[in-house]
């Protein structure tokens, strides 16, 4: 193991270092200003496509003709892509909350979240040599209690506490609003009866197993966007289960030729769910426009886009086509 002894560099020294590696910097003053607001380390991930390769290794030297503006432009593209994806995820999240509350309340009453019997029993799972207890019921009860005690921002929580003494927890339509997306995903995954989650999943045109898998991946990408991390060419650590076909909604003609670990498949997932969650969504129009605006730096291959992706029915139909999900 080596000892890390690199010293921090001033902005001028950072620019000199980049120039010494062959990067063209037409405006040092503007580059320094951008480094002050973003940081060298964060931008270093966007430098990689412009560096030379020696075999399978990436050199510290830049390819001939590479400029600082190319790197910064790629960073801006990724930022806009994250914002677009995050907005689409919000629409999906709101719809998932609504269906969880409605369908489970209709079946189990207003306080279904307090009914342990509808959830799978506690189990222990071994991950990397560690035993992890999976008990979603206890976890959401703990979260609700913490929110009741500490959440001063939500007026409806304070209103319930001051007006009602029984039951101690608010109804599900309040409790679900203060849950994280991860908890929504876990609720769907840990419902005891398959019919309970299938009612929710089929609303979005998906079998239960695929729906739960997709929620898990959506939560993963949501966290990437929320923490402003690189998205555009990321290999997904949580790979969604493949949807082979759909009888009710537009989907990819041949999912087998699409890499599920790349961003393109995830974008297809979002567009698929938005057909139900927000049928008038402008997501695909905005995505297509963004890719066109940054076509000089948005490497579609790095994101897993097939060459003929724009001809897929999923991306070519009318924006405001009214699509309804019918369970099959």
Question: How would you characterize the overall build of this protein?
Answer:
The model is unreliable at 319-328 (pLDDT under 50). It contains 13 helices and 4 strands. The protein has 2 domains: 11-66, no CATH class; 76-316, no CATH class. By secondary structure, the protein is mainly alpha-helical. α4 (68-108) crosses α11 (263-277). The chain is 51% helix and 6% strand. The strands form 2 sheets. It has a two-stranded antiparallel ribbon. A two-stranded antiparallel sheet has the order 3-4. β1 and β2 (57-62) form a beta hairpin. The longest helix is centred in the first third of the chain and has 41 residues, at 68-108.
Report how far the terminal alpha carbons are from each other. 57 Å
Tally of helical segments: 13
Question: Number of domains in the coordinates?
Answer: 2
Main beta sheet? 2 strands, antiparallel
The geometry reads as: globular
Main structural class:
mainly alpha
Helix content: 40-55%
Alpha-carbon Rg, integer: 24 Å
Low-confidence stretches: 319-328
Strand fraction band?
A: 5-15%
């Amino acid at each position: 193991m080596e000892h890390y002894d690199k010293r921090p560099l001033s902005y001028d020294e950072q620019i000199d270092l980049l120039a010494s590696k062959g990067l063209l910097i037409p405006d040092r003053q503007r580059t320094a200003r951008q480094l002050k607001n973003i940081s060298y380390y964060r931008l270093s991930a966007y430098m990689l496509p412009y560096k030379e390769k020696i075999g399978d290794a990436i050199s510290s030297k830049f390819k001939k003709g590479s400029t600082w503006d190319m790197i910064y432009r790629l960073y801006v593209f990724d930022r806009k892509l994250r914002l677009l994806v995050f907005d689409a995820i919000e629409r999906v999240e709101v719809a998932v909350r609504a269906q969880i509350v409605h369908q489970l309340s209709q079946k189990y009453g207003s306080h279904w979240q307090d009914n342990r019997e509808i959830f799978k029993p506690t189990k222990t799972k071994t991950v990397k040599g560690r035993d992890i207890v999976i008990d979603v019921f206890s976890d959401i009860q703990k979260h609700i209690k913490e929110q009741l005690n500490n959440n001063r921002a939500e007026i409806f929580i304070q209103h319930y506490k001051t007006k009602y003494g029984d039951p101690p927890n608010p109804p599900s339509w309040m409790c679900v609003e203060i849950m994280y997306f991860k908890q929504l995903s876990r609720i769907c995954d840990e419902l005891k009866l398959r019919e309970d989650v299938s009612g929710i999943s089929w609303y979005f045109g998906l079998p239960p197993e695929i729906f739960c898998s997709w929620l898990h991946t959506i939560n993963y990408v949501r966290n990437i966007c929320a923490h402003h991390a690189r998205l555009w060419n990321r290999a997904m650590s949580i790979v969604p289960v493949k949807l082979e076909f759909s009888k009710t909604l537009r989907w990819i003609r041949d999912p087998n030729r699409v890499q599920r670990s790349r961003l393109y498949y995830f974008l297809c997932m979002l567009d698929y769910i938005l057909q139900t969650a927000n049928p008038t969504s402008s997501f695909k129009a905005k995505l297509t426009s963004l890719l066109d605006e940054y076509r000089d730096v948005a490497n579609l291959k790095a994101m897993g886009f097939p060459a003929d992706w724009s001809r897929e029915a999923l991306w070519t139909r009318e924006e405001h086509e009214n699509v309804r999900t019918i369970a099959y």
